[in-house]
């Protein structure tokens, strides 16, 4: 993989070992605007890598440093997600500027990059997440069009469970307790439920806890979720 160094001044020192990868979309009108913002000292945002729509990969912050991509966030007891993660921005206008499917060339580059990072740092599939997973009340990226299934088939993300599903018949409180156990911040219950749906049941994001949601979450909490063959 060819990586183009495009340094950002927006970083500081880590206080935690690397154990996560967080995927974002840029959410701006074009790549040039996103790159300019990620390099602007006044913006105080950055990422480790940016993947353009044609598959070009830019390195903006060295992995050993703490990039500023996650904001206020939480995942599996980690509060300083920036310190624990590698942040990858994927060029896409996002929900505010004409959200669209991600090109095949771009996703191929994302998968190669994620596979390389995962192998070097020993990151588990459950810690390869989207921005909406770690900040459900604030973020929707990389969104319902992102092909998580393609990553899961290469063991680069958790699969959507499809086999031997059983409905645990949880109440809303029980579902949210299980969602918290899985890793989400459930302070805003509706936001957490919709973030879960956006990731694991993207065809219907309504914030309603139904049997399918309960079955998927239960399966994800088991030792070996099966799906996305």
Automatic annotation (TrEMBL):
MF-aspect GO terms: N-acetylmuramoyl-L-alanine amidase activity
GO BP field: cell wall organization; peptidoglycan catabolic process; peptidoglycan turnover
Top-level EC class: hydrolase
Key words, A-Z: Cell wall biogenesis/degradation, Hydrolase
Keyword match Hydrolase: yes
Enzyme Commission code(s) on record: 3.5.1.28
Domain N-acetylmuramoyl-L-alanine amidase: 6-143
Entry-linked CDD domains: PGRP
GO cellular component labels: outer membrane
SMART domains documented for this protein: Ami_2
InterPro entries in UniProt: Amidase/PGRP_sf, Amidase_domain, NAMLAA_amidase_2, PGBD-like_sf, PGBDSf
Catalytic reaction annotation: Hydrolyzes the link between N-acetylmuramoyl residues and L-amino acid residues in certain cell-wall glycopeptides
Keyword Endoplasmic reticulum listed: no
Signal sequence extent: none
Matching Pfam families: Amidase_2
SUPFAM superfamilies cross-referenced by the UniProt entry: N-acetylmuramoyl-L-alanine amidase-like, PGBD-like
Family: Belongs to the N-acetylmuramoyl-L-alanine amidase 2 family.
Protein name as it appears in the record: N-acetylmuramoyl-L-alanine amidase
Species per Swiss-Prot/TrEMBL record: Sphingomonas pseudosanguinis
Organism lineage: Bacteria, Pseudomonadati, Pseudomonadota, Alphaproteobacteria, Sphingomonadales
